[in-house]
Amino acid sequence: MVPDHVGIAEKVKGGVIYTMEGNSAGDRCRENRYVAGSEWIYGYGRFFDMK
Description:
The chain is mainly β. It contains no helices and three strands. It has a three-stranded antiparallel sheet, with no helix packed on it.
């Protein structure tokens, strides 16, 4: 599989990762849920406050 878009991980609760993703249902944004360790997740990035 080749990654084709990114999403924002909103939270992790009970081993489930909740994401907000664009282009997941046509031209719409929607929330998706994945079990931690899912084959559909290729990696994570984290933003730091650079002040």
